[in-house]
Design brief:
SH3 type barrels; Alpha-Beta Plaits; 5-stranded antiparallel beta sheet; 3-stranded antiparallel beta sheet; 18% strand; rod-shaped
């Protein structure tokens, strides 16, 4: 019951003032379009009714209505925050890696479902429903599902790790578990690699993040080193000239930069040279063919100069 006419004026004045204040704040912020009128009205009426004397049953219903409005507003704000987070994640990872969009979308769905369950449990608990059994049931069910789909969940978590950490991307050349190839697709459960031998190799995502992975595409240059052995009996002048003509031979190959050629061992009746060169990123695809041409060129030049390769 209302104690006096003054109570009505206080109630109306405070409610209107609070409503107008919230309206002004929301107009000045980005959350204006996501703030529900019912939420502001419910809080305005709740604060205003503090100066009124109402029956206990009415007080309970007022609080329940306020709770419902608050939970609905929390759902709206939560969706906005999730969408903003997903947009930032997508702009940082999804554009450069289209296959990551499925993982990002799954993250969004999981976050929305989790938010919805949380708000439902809070709402039921505040209206007097015993949610202990419900929470326990959800926990037991979650454990059972996790155990039954352990491998799938591990791959899912690994795909999230790939999206966030970006150890590799679509089109990059990688080596993993003895397979070297180009990443063709990154999915929720598996990653597909187009091997240099031609076939498509499918790896579970957990394999891609569990062990050592070499990303060749993120190297500026790749270093290649090999050894050749010249039989004893070669003249010192011919041996001294080897680094020079090997350097000229290697440098003629497009995308290849000669590094060095040195004698590293004279034991065992042979003269052992170590040759090293750098392969640019652009020439990486034809590196094996280039190495073949270099070795054939060395063999021809040795024959022309009368140098015998050690058996």
């Amino acid at each position: 019951m209302i104690e006096s006419i003054e109570g009505w004026f206080i109630f109306g004045g405070l409610s209107a003032a609070f409503y107008l204040a919230m309206e002004a704040v929301t107009r000045l912020t980005r959350i204006r379009q996501h703030t529900r009128k019912g939420f502001m009205l419910a809080w305005a009426l709740f604060l205003g009714h503090q100066w009124l004397k109402v029956p206990e049953d009415a007080e309970i219903w007022i609080k329940r209505v306020l709770l419902l409005a608050t939970l609905m507003q929390g759902w709206a704000y939560g969706l906005v925050l999730i969408d903003v987070a997903l947009e930032r994640l997508s702009s940082a990872h999804g554009r450069s890696n289209p296959s990551s969009r499925a993982t990002i979308a799954l993250l969004g769905t999981t976050a929305r479902v989790g938010l919805g369950l949380l708000l439902v449990v809070l709402g039921l608990n505040n209206v007097g429903v015993n949610v202990t059994a419900l929470v326990a049931g959800l926990g037991v069910g979650g454990i059972a599902v996790a155990l039954a789909a352990q491998s799938l969940l591990t791959d899912l978590l690994a795909s999230i790790t790939i999206v966030l950490d970006q150890p590799f991307g679509i089109g990059e050349l990688v080596s993993v578990e003895g397979v070297t190839g180009t990443v063709d697709r990154i999915g929720i459960k598996t990653t597909r690699i187009r091997a240099q031998t031609g076939e498509t190799v499918i790896f579970p995502n957990q394999v891609m993040v569990r062990g050592a992975l070499r990303n060749h595409s993120r190297q500026n240059d790749a270093r290649v080193a090999f050894r050749i052995e010249i039989a004893n009996g070669a003249r010192a002048e011919d041996v001294a000239a080897i680094p020079s003509w090997i350097g000229d031979l290697v440098s003629k190959t497009p995308g290849i930069a000669f590094e060095s050629a040195h004698v590293v061992d004279l034991s065992g009746g042979r003269i052992q040279f170590e040759v090293a060169y750098q392969v640019s990123l652009e020439a990486r695809a034809g590196a094996k063919a280039a190495h073949h041409e270099i070795l054939v060129g060395i063999l021809r030049e040795c024959g022309r100069r009368g140098l015998v390769l050690a058996a």
